[in-house]
């Protein structure tokens, strides 16, 4: 039903009809407008679908109306282009004439006009919500809406009649919404209902808070009072409830807990009663919401009746009776069932005290007194014992607008004296289905409160008259939308002022009609069958609140003029606070917030902060603020600082602001924005220096000067150039650092493995690939190296080595005396003399390590003088170049590493071996997603020794690379071939010389905490070296041949994985990776390391690790079993024979194919590195003889005992269901016609709860073979459950079922298997009267 304003109710003329038809046929233009201003807290996205003939001026008006701005105070520009003039506000051109495309999306940006933010439309002008469309949108507003306050919700929601700009303005309904903190919609619904209850609101206003007696933050009544005042007087569209929840003692985590609104109502009322003790409002809750009923049992033989009086705050009404297939039609029918007595007969007979025997009796409830505010809870949440899940009943249940309760009152009992038989009102009501809803410790005194228009007569004189004074009118419907697992609450409330119904949906308040109320009945069209609830609407009424129709008692809302004095003061305080908040937001709307960086002049580290400056502040004032913010007062004078435009991502100084010290920041930064595409840098200088001007369009270049004679790289020098400069002009610029431009060679490092020699004189830097920030290497010598091709030159080789050398930490093994002879022979000492003189293996190893290290140093660094990689020498060196002699290329064959270069820990494939060069250009940023080498270093440090003395200084030290340092590395496990290729001999030695052989090492001690440092090596190695060559270079330090030790790579979590692929390079390694050397025979070609696990099918942990062993290609299964026997006997204490166990495939925890003794590895059985197999001990002779057989693990389900029997293996000759049934019948004795089976689900052992197995599995599939859907049993190890279909499940009481459910849940959780019924752990709803939960002193 759609309601139109009066001016839309006239009949439509023929001319109007024709115009409407033409408009319908006219093409339409879809405009998507993104608000990029900072005028609002939410940057919204507006959608307009306009006729193509709409003018630009009309477009501006439509956008202004929808966004809530004053037209003419903002600009519109095309959204996907830059540097385009904004659209003309005054133009009368149509959209199509202005470049808009009909039938397509046209993106626009709403921007500031002349640097000023758009002006918000005043409340009087209205927003989109205040148009006549609001009343017509009530159907849309009835359901749950996207909430901008909920984390994860999109903020660009818009509709033809609503935009998020209206969140700043009060709804045209005159009512204020409540912000949803996260999942507090249940709280908002209850608070709005209480606010719209005149008697409760007025009574709360009449209560006066005494600040001297209680902290206002923890006072629940005071915070409710403040909230109600704001709901009545605030100009906001919605207000926060955080102060109220804070008074409950809740923290922020409570906002993410959804609770039941009825439970909240009871807990809140109880908390208010506790807070209101000893006040005039002490009995307010009882007077308004408490009723009385009688719980009775009447003997049918003598008429004797035993009864007691109970009180209630709400009446729980059953939607669908237990075991019934149909729900009650209406609230009246449910009320009738509520008071319908139950006959106690048979085994349930009642012992009559008068008859002194068990007699038939009638047990039931009678209403004695109805409260002034009657609350009905529709029990829509239930538990389905068939599925063992919590469910929601969505059946239809109608409720009247006026409810006559006189048929349900017990007049005679009400007139009788209540004190005669009234026992403890909080006593447990044994026979009542609503005993859990009864309120405890309620007073029976019906006193009067000033805040309500109640009669002052005593309770015995205020007996309600049936048929005349028991008519209640509905005024609140709390609706739940969703399922039993979660959903959304909102309230439909009728105002007693004008009789209009409103939807209070968190911050959205809108008018609704009676038709909308009827939609909350629930259910669906058609018959009300058992499954009707499953297909019904999930949005339905959950709680109903009625008010007694009594003109003498019905109160009206207090208006502002009639507020008590303390409320008037509170209103004034809240108004001032709101104005202050508005002023503060206005300041924030005009505040520029931008990242600020500063290189500390002394610490030489980049500092970061956020500069918040008003847009009207000048650059000079902003510089003073940045100076104080960075706390460099006393380090550098203020006049030695300036702010410059900076790009932190590329480390690029974009421009400086000479002569603009008095320009406002709003003009310099382009207005106030939520984020900026650039940053600011507080640049400093020494007093004797002069700031260099940075002009727009310049690019920054870091120049690294390389000396071929000393093979060193000097620290970088920063220069600024223009992209339109030629290479010749650029060389002349570089020549300022005392280099010859005639012999200069300039190499630009653009991206990975892309060294570009700039040799075309007239080519521009832009054409060569320069970007904002660049890195170049420069060499200017008169050697003949520039006469050869660049890729064959020494310059290329040095830069190539520089990019591919890494530093590794190698931990050496603790060697035993048993290998001492081998060590001595390798280094050339006398073994007998060594054995006599040695005091232990450690001394021999230390001596060998020292001797071999010195030998290697002399071999590879004969001409190097005074070189050191220690941090102290690096930091103390202040010369421009570090002169280090280069070893002969014939001796070392390669370059050493840069010890300080830091690569990320990401592994790469062989195709990326030569693609590992760092860069700061734009290309490197594009390629960084697929390459990991982003070399970082402090550019201001001294020269860092590289191979042959080459030094390295990186370009960038951005956070991108730091973040990438922690990336998880790929495990270095072999998946295809564990051994060597044809280019290696059986010992893993290379048959041909490798191209990359650089290897340099030095010893260092690593403290292991024991006082004795572990012997380690610091190795600088070319990462293109193969693992085989790397191991050969380690032989002198380990003391044995490379075939007798293993290399383990250590990862961040200290896990070690063996590197076994000798033909692979070290390209997956990066700087400072750790390697551990362990003694033991390395794998030869065709060998595979295998982990053996024992399969224990009937144990709680069916998978148990046994041993590590080695299988070889061409070995039979029987041979591998024979080699396993000694290991099993010595390490696992398993004394087995070859025919008493089997090996089978292991796929995670699942047992698979049974390996037969004659199977050959790599021929019949595929095998790979780090392979895993199951070992299964046999109870008898092996039944599996051929591959055509199928081994199935079966398990019997006994429903009469609620028990699963142990596993039994069944070996089938064929994959037919018939044979499986016969085998199962044979081992179980179940007749074939009664036998049913089902395939297990999940991983072995396919555990399932005994409460679910009878219904959840697909029993007795209609197939004839096992290898088809839905079974797909094609391999050994499948799990099959079977049962006798004539056996009925055990009858369980509710307590037995609950106990069994707990046991099963505990069992399945221990085995790590899924528990089908695992309801989310709901946090108990509590309101803390002391301001918060008590903390455990031992809890931290």
TrEMBL record:
GO cellular component entries: cytosol; nucleus
Region feature (Disordered): 116-143, 409-440, 859-990
Ranges annotated as biased composition (Acidic residues): 972-985
MF annotations from Gene Ontology: cysteine-type deubiquitinase activity
Catalyses which reaction(s): Thiol-dependent hydrolysis of ester, thioester, amide, peptide and isopeptide bonds formed by the C-terminal Gly of ubiquitin (a 76-residue protein attached to proteins as an intracellular targeting signal)
Keyword Electron transport: no
GO biological process: protein deubiquitination; proteolysis
Annotated InterPro entries: Papain-like_cys_pep_sf, Peptidase_C19, Peptidase_C19_UCH, USP, USP47_C, USP_CS
Start and end residues of each USP domain: 176-549
Keywords: Hydrolase, Protease, Thiol protease, Ubl conjugation pathway
Entry EC no(s): 3.4.19.12
UniProt feature, compositional bias: Low complexity: 862-878, 918-934
Composition bias type Polar residues, residue spans: 418-440, 887-904
PROSITE patterns in the cross-refs: USP_1, USP_2, USP_3
Domain of life: Eukaryota
Compositionally biased region (Basic and acidic residues): 905-915
Protein name: Ubiquitin carboxyl-terminal hydrolase 47
Native source organism of the sequence: Esox lucius (Northern pike)
């Amino acid at each position: 039903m759609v309601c139109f304003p009066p001016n839309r109710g006239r009949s439509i003329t023929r001319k109007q009809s024709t115009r409407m038809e033409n408009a319908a046929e006219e093409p339409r233009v879809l405009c998507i407008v993104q608000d990029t201003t900072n005028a609002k807290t939410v940057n919204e996205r507006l959608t307009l679908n306009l006729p193509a003939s709409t003018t630009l001026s009309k477009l501006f008006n439509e956008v202004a109306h929808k966004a809530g701005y004053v037209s003419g105070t903002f600009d519109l520009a095309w959204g996907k282009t830059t540097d385009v003039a904004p659209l003309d506000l005054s133009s009368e051109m149509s959209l199509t004439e202005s470049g808009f495309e009909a039938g397509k999306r046209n993106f626009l940006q709403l921007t500031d006009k002349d640097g000023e933010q758009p002006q918000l439309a005043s409340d009087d002008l209205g927003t989109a919500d205040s148009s006549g469309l609001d009343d017509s949108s009530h159907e849309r507003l009835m359901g749950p809406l996207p909430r901008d306050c909920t984390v994860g919700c999109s903020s660009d929601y818009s509709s033809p009649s609503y935009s998020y700009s209206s969140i700043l303005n009060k709804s045209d309904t005159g009512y204020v919404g409540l912000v949803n903190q996260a999942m507090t919609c249940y709280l908002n619904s209850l608070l709005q209902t209480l606010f719209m209850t005149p008697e409760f609101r007025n009574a709360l206003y009449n209560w006066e808070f005494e600040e001297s007696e209680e902290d206002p933050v923890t006072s629940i009544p005071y915070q409710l009072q403040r909230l109600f005042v704001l709901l009545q007087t605030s100009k906001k569209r919605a207000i926060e409830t955080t102060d109220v929840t804070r008074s409950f003692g809740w923290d922020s985590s409570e906002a993410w807990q959804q609770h039941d609104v009825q439970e909240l109502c009871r807990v809140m009322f109880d908390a208010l009663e506790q807070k209101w003790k000893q006040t005039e409002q002490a009995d307010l809750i009882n007077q308004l919401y408490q009723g009385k009923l009688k719980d009775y049992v009447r003997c049918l033989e003598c008429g004797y009746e035993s009864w007691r009086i109970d009180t209630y705050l709400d009446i729980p009404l059953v939607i669908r009776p237990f075991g019934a297939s149909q729900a009650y039609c209406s609230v009246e029918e449910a009320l009738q069932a509520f008071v319908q007595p139950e006959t106690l007969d048979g085994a349930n007979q009642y012992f009559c005290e008068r008859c002194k025997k068990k007699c038939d009796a009638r047990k039931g409830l009678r209403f004695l007194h109805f409260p002034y505010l009657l609350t009905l809870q529709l029990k829509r949440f239930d538990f389905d014992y068939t599925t063992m899940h919590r469910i929601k009943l969505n059946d239809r249940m109608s409720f009247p607008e006026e409810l006559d309760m006189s048929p349900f009152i017990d007049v005679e009992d009400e007139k009788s004296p209540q004190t005669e038989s009234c026992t403890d009102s909080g006593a447990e009501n044994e026979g009542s289905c609503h005993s859990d809803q009864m309120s405890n410790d309620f007073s029976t005194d019906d006193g009067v409160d000033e805040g309500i228009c109640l009669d002052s007569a005593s309770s015995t004189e205020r007996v309600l008259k049936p048929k005349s004074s028991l008519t209640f009118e509905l005024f609140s419907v709390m609706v739940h939308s969703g399922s039993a697992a979660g959903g959304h609450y909102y309230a439909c409330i009728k105002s007693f002022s004008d009789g209009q119904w409103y939807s209070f949906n968190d911050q959205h308040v809108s008018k609704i009609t009676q038709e909308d109320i009827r939609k909350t009945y629930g259910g669906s069209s058609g018959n009300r069958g058992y499954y009707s609830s499953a297909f019904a609407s999930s949005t339905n009424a959950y709680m109903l609140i009625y008010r007694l129709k009594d003109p003498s008692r019905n109160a009206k809302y207090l208006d502002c003029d009639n507020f008590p004095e303390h409320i008037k003061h509170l209103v004034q305080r809240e108004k001032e606070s709101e104005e202050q908040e508005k002023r503060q937001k206005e300041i924030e709307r005009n505040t520029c917030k931008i990242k600020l960086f500063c290189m500390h002049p002394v610490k030489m580290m980049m500092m970061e902060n956020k500069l918040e400056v008003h847009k009207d502040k000048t650059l000079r004032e902003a510089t003073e603020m940045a100076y104080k913010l960075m706390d460099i007062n006393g380090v550098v004078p203020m006049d030695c600082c300036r702010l410059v435009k900076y790009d932190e991502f590329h480390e690029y100084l974009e421009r400086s602001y000479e002569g603009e010290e008095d320009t406002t920041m709003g003009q310099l930064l382009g207005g106030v924005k939520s984020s900026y595409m650039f940053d600011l840098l507080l640049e400093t200088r020494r007093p004797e220096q002069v700031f260099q001007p940075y002009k727009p369009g310049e690019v920054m270049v870091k120049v690294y000067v390389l000396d071929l004679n000393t093979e060193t790289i000097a620290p970088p020098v920063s220069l600024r150039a223009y992209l339109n400069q030629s290479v010749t002009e650029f060389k002349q610029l570089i020549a300022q650092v005392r280099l010859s431009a005639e012999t200069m060679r300039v190499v630009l490092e653009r991206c990975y493995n892309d060294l570009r020699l700039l040799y075309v004189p007239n080519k521009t830097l832009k054409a060569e690939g320069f970007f904002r920030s660049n890195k170049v290497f420069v060499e200017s010598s008169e050697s003949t190296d520039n006469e050869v091709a660049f890729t064959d030159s020494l310059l290329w080789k040095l830069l190539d080595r520089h990019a591919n050398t890494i530093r590794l930490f190698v931990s050496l093994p603790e060697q035993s005396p048993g290998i001492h002879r081998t060590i001595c022979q390798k280094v050339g000492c006398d073994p007998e003399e060594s054995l006599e003189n040695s005091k232990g293996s450690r001394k021999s190893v230390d001596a060998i390590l020292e001797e071999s290290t010195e030998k290697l140093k002399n071999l590879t660094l004969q001409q190097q003088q005074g070189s050191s990689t220690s941090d102290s020498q690096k930091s103390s060196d202040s010369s421009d170049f570090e002169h280090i002699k280069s070893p002969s290329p014939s001796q070392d064959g390669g370059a050493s590493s840069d010890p300080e270069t830091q690569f990320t820990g990401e592994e790469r494939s062989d195709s990326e071996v030569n693609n590992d060069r760092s860069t700061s250009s734009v290309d490197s940023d594009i390629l960084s997603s697929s390459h990991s080498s982003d070399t970082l270093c402090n550019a201001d440090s001294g020269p860092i020794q590289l191979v042959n003395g080459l030094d390295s200084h990186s370009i960038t030290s951005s956070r991108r690379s730091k973040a990438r340092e922690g990336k998880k590395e790929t495990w270095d496990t072999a998946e295809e071939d564990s051994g060597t290729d044809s280019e290696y001999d059986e010992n893993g030695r290379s048959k041909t010389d490798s191209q990359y052989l650089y290897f340099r090492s030095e010893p260092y001690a690593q403290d292991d905490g024991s006082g004795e440092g572990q012997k380690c090596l610091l190795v600088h190695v070319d990462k293109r070296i193969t693992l085989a060559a790397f191991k050969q270079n380690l032989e002198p330090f380990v003391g044995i041949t490379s075939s007798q030790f293993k290399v383990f790579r250590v990862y961040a979590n200290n896990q070690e994985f063996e590197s076994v692929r000798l033909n692979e390079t070290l390209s997956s390694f990066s700087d400072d990776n750790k390697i551990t050397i362990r003694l033991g025979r390395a794998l030869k070609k065709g060998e595979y390391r295998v982990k053996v696990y024992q399969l224990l099918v009937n144990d709680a942990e069916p998978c148990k690790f046994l041993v590590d062993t080695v299988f070889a290609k061409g070995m039979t299964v029987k041979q591998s079993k024979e080699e396993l026997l000694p290991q099993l006997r010595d390490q696992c204490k398993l004394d087995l024979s070859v025919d008493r166990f089997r090996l089978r495939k292991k796929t995670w925890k699942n047992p698979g194919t049974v390996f037969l003794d004659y199977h050959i590895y790599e021929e019949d059985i595929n095998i790979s590195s780090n392979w895993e197999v199951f070992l299964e001990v046999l109870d008898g002779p092996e039944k599996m003889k051929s591959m055509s057989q199928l081994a199935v693990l079966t398990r019997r389900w006994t429903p009469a005992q609620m028990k699963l029997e142990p596993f039994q293996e069944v070996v089938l000759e064929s994959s037919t269901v018939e044979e499986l049934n016969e085998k199962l019948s044979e081992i179980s004795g179940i007749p074939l016609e009664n036998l049913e089976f089902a395939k297990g689900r999940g991983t072995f052992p396919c555990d399932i709860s005994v409460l679910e197995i009878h219904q959840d599995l697909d029993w007795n599939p209609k197939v004839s073979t096992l290898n088809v859907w839905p079974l797909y049993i094609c391999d050994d190890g499948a799990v099959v459950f079977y049962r006798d279909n004539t056996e009925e499940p055990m009858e369980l009481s509710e307590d037995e079922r609950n106990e069994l459910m707990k046991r099963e849940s505990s069992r399945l959780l221990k085995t790590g298997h899924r528990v089908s019924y695992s309801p989310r752990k709901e946090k108990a709803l509590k309101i803390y009267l002391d301001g918060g939960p008590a903390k455990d002193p031992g809890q931290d």
